[in-house]
Write a structure and sequence with these properties.
The complex is a heterodimer of chains A (about 120) and B (about 110).
Chain A: E1 4-7, E2 10-14, E3 19-25, E4 32-38, E5 45-51, E6 56-59, E7 62-67, E8 72-77, E9 86-93, E10 104-106, E11 110-115
Parallel strand pairs in A: 2-11
Antiparallel strand pairs in A: 1-3, 3-8, 4-5, 4-9, 6-7, 7-8, 9-10, 9-11
Chain B: E1 4-7, E2 10-13, E3 19-25, E4 31-37, E5 43-51, E6 54-57, E7 64-66, E8 76-78, E9 87-94, E10 103-104, E11 108-112
Parallel strand pairs in B: 2-11
Antiparallel strand pairs in B: 1-3, 3-8, 4-5, 4-9, 5-6, 7-8, 9-10, 9-11
The chains are: A mainly beta (about 120), B mainly beta (about 110).
């Protein structure tokens, strides 16, 4: 099955600086890579996603890049603000050993702390 | 407002007891999923359903059961066979299972008395 590694586990940046979170995946057949933001006591919220036929996608202060050859993808947040503080999860869609499955495999999360 | 509703928000289970977590969606999505989240861990897939009256085991299905009798509902039962049930349980849905975005509810936190 798919395996997703996410780094770092904790990231502290000054307000206004940029933050970068990186993930690697193992299944070269994976073709969909979403990023989720989770606030305390809430469910994850989709913030951006990218498919394997695209190398980069941007939405205002958030961007995601994908390197299929190296099997890694990254989340970039520019001009960070206090409300960006949360746990961020990357995920990859691959095929499960059970056959025909279509769930997501998640990284273990990055706790992003924005220092005022 | 369309969305996914999970209830209850907090649930307590006694030893040897089965409990059922509710998940309802009004997004008209075909696919629904149950994940378990432990502290410092990512989400792990328990069960998923691609269509009504069909469901499949995920990575950690042992000790859990589900049903999908209606499109909008996908309840999860945590049975007494699940020896470590304390966790945050998240339900999600997507338009179909073809790599469409998954949307999550706000979770149920299950604890053992």
């Amino acid at each position: 099955g798919e395996n997703v590694e996410q780094h770092p586990s904790t990231l502290s940046v000054q307000e206004g600086d940029s933050a970068v979170i990186k993930c690697t995946y193992s299944d070269s057949a994976s073709n969909y890579f979403p990023w989720y933001k989770q606030e305390l006591g809430k469910g994850p919220q989709l913030i951006i996603d990218i498919r394997s036929n695209v190398g980069e996608k941007k939405d205002q202060r958030i961007a995601v890049t994908l390197n299929k050859t190296a099997k890694h993808f990254s989340l970039h947040i520019t001009e960070t603000q206090p409300e960006d503080s949360a746990v961020y999860f990357c995920a990859a869609r691959g095929m499960y050993s059970g056959g025909g499955a279509d769930g997501l495999t998640f990284g273990k999360g990055t706790h992003l702390i924005i220092q005022p | 407002d369309g969305g996914i509703t999970q209830s209850p928000k907090y649930l307590f289970r006694k030893e040897g007891q089965n409990v059922t977590l509710s998940c309802e969606q009004n997004l008209n999505h075909d696919a629904m999923y149950w994940y378990r989240q432990d502290p410092g861990q990512g989400l792990r897939l328990i069960y998923y359903s691609q269509i009504v009256n069909d469901f499949q085991k995920g990575d950690i299905a042992e000790g859990y059961s589900v049903s999908r009798e209606k499109k909008e509902s996908f309840p999860l039962t945590v049975t007494s066979a699940q020896k470590n049930p304390t966790a945050f349980y998240l339900c999600a849905s997507s338009r179909d299972s073809g790599g469409q975005p998954q949307h999550f509810g706000d979770g149920t936190r299950l604890s053992i008395l």
